[in-house]
Amino acid sequence: RRHVCLFSWIAASVPRVFHMPVRCVEAPEPYQPRAGDGPVVFLAGGITAVPDWQATVVDALRDEPFVLLNPRRSGSDVLDPGVADEQIAWEHRHLWLPELTLTLFWFAASDPAVTVQPIALYELGAAAAAASRRIVVGADPGYPRRHDVRTQLRLARPELVVHQTLPDVITEVRAIPR
User: Tens of pLDDT along 12-55?
Assistant: First the structure.
């Protein structure tokens, strides 16, 4: 499942021999809009010390006409300061693209002694503060700050549902108008 982004790139490079509707742009590759792109969705959430939930999303949406912006990079150590700076800049740039349709936030179960996914919390706060920003949010029951996410969003964006499962988040993403 980790190679779905690669397969999307190959499918886009081969002229209609086979077709894979989803297009996945993985950090550090920059997103370049193309004619006919579907809705652009940023996959926001933990990438360090959490399961590769992004691969699950990419796999689930493989037959959908989305462009998925995936910050989880293959084969890089985001704890390396040089890589970390590049990663943060990529995420910031792509989170605020004018072409962005919505941001999917998933807070995976994690060990609070290792991570509470602080960058994702920061990104959620910024996105929630922009009332016109379209976001879909989920927090696993095993995510240590789930209560905080639900409480903050109830205050900032009471119309939002904080889903408990990744499949529920994916279902809401599938329902967005195209």
Answer: 444 443 445 899 999 999 999 999 999 999 999 999 999 999 99
Percent helix, strand, coil in the chain, to 5, is 35, 15, 45
Residue 107 dihedral angles phi and psi, to the nearest 5°: -105, 100
Q: How confident is the model at residue 5 (pLDDT cuts 50, 70, 90)?
A: low
Q: Considering only CA atoms, which of 132, 126, 131, 145 is closest in space to residue 50?
A: 145
- Tokens encoding 128: 């929630």
pLDDT score, position 143: 98
- Beta-carbon contacts of residue 67 (< 8 Å; ≥ 6 apart): 22, 23, 24, 25, 31, 37, 38, 39, 40, 41
For tokens 């990419």, name the residue.
Answer: 58
- Report pLDDT digits (tens) over 121-147: 999 999 999 999 999 999 999 999 999
Name the nearest CA neighbour of 162 among 144, 143, 149, 148. 149
Distance CA 32, CA 20 (A): 18
Whole-angstrom distance, CA of residue 34 vs CA of residue 95: 18
CA angle 94, 85, 5 (to 5 degrees): 45
